[in-house]
Every structure is written in structure tokens, then in C-alpha cells.
Amino acid sequence: MKLKKLTTALILATLPATGVFAAALDRSGQSIAAFLQPGNYFEAGISVLDPEVSGHFKAAPSVSTGEMADDYQFYNVALKLQPTSNFSFGLIYDQPFGAAATYSPTALNVFNNAAGESTEVEVETQNLSFIFGYQPTENFNFYAGPVYQTVKGNVQLRGAAYGGVTAFGGYNANIGEDSAVGWLAGFAYQIPEIALKASVTYRSEIEHEVNVKESSTGAGPITAIINNPADTGSTDITTPQSVNLDLQTGIMADTVAFANVRWVNWKDFSIRPYKFGKGSEAASAAATGGLYTKGFNLVDYSDDQISATVGVGRKFTDHWAGNVSVGYDTGAGNPVSTLGPTEGYWSVGLGAQYSPAANYFIAAGVKYLMLGDATAHSGAYSIPGNAVAAQVAEFEDNDAWAYGLKIGYRF
């Protein structure tokens, strides 16, 4: 079987440019597919996710939490240059991790206070990957490079789910933007004649030391700890390491099968702002009569995430190509944080590409995601003997739609 290189490249470009409602804070999937395109290449894309996530309170099963997952969009841009047959350079911008959630003021004061203020969270990251590749032969590609990352966010906790006004029910955290550097490395193998291409990419964790502006509008000893101006300290946030495995192969003329598997080390990820940590230590000591004083995290996860997507892409004419895919995400453990109460997903996706000329294209994709059911808990879940009491809501039968648009140009 012989497949032309250009035909293979065009089929690959039809993969949906959509992000997913993945486990924990995962968004973009951190693909480097653009860097593995032949020759000089540029692409830019936008992804939009429209989730519908709601549940009911464990203490009052007939009462809904209301819709809490906000719509969001994110962007990616990639440039790949091949100055010689043996050396290549890539620059990829994406927004790999994030969160966006707001609980409705009607949510029975479990996630809100008497003033109508809602529990809210917004987390944003940006990555700029510099990739240097060496191709000793047509078949092998070894690559590595630094990754520059920024992170920022805002969190507002309200209501009885966080201990009401006497504990963390009035807590606010503004995570100022911080930048840090990590790295990636990997290799790819290809046999162009049969459209075979396989790659493995490792991305390191990236350690941030951020200044978090913390305050509380509540009352009681926890609020006094959080609002103490004399006690200051930095907060460590380490975004997780990950591995991506990508595979494609020709299965007939103008047709390829593809697969992506991704592992993200969420089990070792946590966010514990400095004063929140001090307050949680006091709260855990009070709850256990001094037997447990280690406190708890604002956000953490119990399992690593593994996700997989498989599908088929086909070129129909010189101008049109398309693909179909199915996906699965394990989630990052259950129970989950109230700030992101879903546990993995199943998905189906469709993609289409129109190529007015051989050197450029416009691609669009859509995915439907069936989100996994989850039990949501507050951070106090980790206090010994408090696991059941800290479970506040059940989230079931939720879903999401993801849309993507991408343009690509070869030069």
C-alpha cells in the first residue's frame, strides 16, 4: 500500500480542534501534532466548550444545585520550521489547564451566603513550548525543549458546604499571575509509504511559587487567621507531569486510523494557599480534638488521569476530508472537588476539513461528551472521620458539547 505524504498530512489535519471537559483541570491535551507535520507549517485554532453540569444536595435530594459549569474557550497557535532535512524548530502556544465554575445564588445557601454571593472559581494557564528536533533519517525524529508557563486564578467560597461563615464560607483567594519554566522531550518514528507515525512526548511538572491575596468575609477564629496581616507566606503550585502517546497508520488508500493516549499525574497535584493551610490546620485540630492537625487542601485529586481517543480519518476528494472518533477519560478520582464535580467522560466526535488549495485548509470539529457521575466534597473530606460529612452533593447525568475551528498553512 502506498500513501502519498501530502494525502496523509491532509487527513491528519482533519482531527477536531476541540478541547474536552477532561479530568481535573486538563483542557488542551497538550498535543505536538503540529510540530510533526512535514516541511514548514503554521496553524491557529479556537476551542469552545459548553457544559451542562448540575446535581442535587445530599442533605436535600430534591433540591438542585443549579447549573454550575461555565462555558469557556481557549486558543492554540503553532509554528513549525524545517530549515534543513535534519533539523527542525517548533513554537506552540496553548492553554493546557483551567477551571471555570459558578454556583447559582439559588443554591440553597450550600454554595452561597445570605447576601447572594456565589461560590466561584476561575483558573487560567498559558504555555509556550520551544521545540528543537533532530531527524537523523527520514524515519526518526528526536525532540526536546523548554516550556514557559504562566498561571493565575481566583477562588471564592461561600455557604454551608465550606463550614458557613464560621469557617471557610467567606474565603477569597486571588492567585496573582506567576511564570515558571519546565521542559518536554520525546521521539517519533514514521514510515511515510504506509502513513505510519508514532510519537511519545513527556512533559515535566512545572513548579510555581505564587503570592496569593487571601481574605475572608466570614466570622470566627478561622477568619481571624486568614485576615491576620502579620502572617504572610508564599504558596507552591506545581502543574502536573504528563505523557502523550500518538499513533496513526494507513489502513487503505486515503484512509488512516489514529489513536491518542494521555496520562496526567493529578494524584500528586494540590493547591493549598498559605493562609488557607493555616486555617485548615486549626479547623482539623478543632474537629478531632487535636488528634489531627495536618489540615487539608483547597483542591487535590486521588487518582491520575488516563484518557484515550481512537478514530478513522479519510480524504474524500482533493478538497474535502473528514474523521470520526470516540474517546474515554478515567477521571482523577471520586469523590471530587465541588469546584469541578465530574468524573471522566465518554465522547464521540466528528471533524471535517476543506482545502481550497494543496497548501492550506480550514478544519472544524464537534464532540459530544457524556460526563461521569460524581460525589462532590469540600476540602475537609481528608480529615479522619469526616469523609462522609464532607460530601455535600451528587452530580449525575451531565454532558457537554465541544466545538473547534482550525486553519493551517504549509509554506
Automatic annotation (TrEMBL):
Residues 1-22 form the signal peptide. Its main location: membrane. It is found in: Cell outer membrane. GO terms for cellular component: cell outer membrane. Transmembrane segments: none annotated. The keyword Kinase does not apply. The keyword Nucleotide-binding does not apply. Belongs to the OmpP1/FadL family. GO terms for molecular function: long-chain fatty acid transporting porin activity. Coiled coil: none annotated. This is Transporter. It comes from the Bacteria. It is a multi-pass membrane protein. Keywords: Cell outer membrane, Membrane, Signal, Transmembrane, Transmembrane beta strand. It comes from Acinetobacter pragensis.
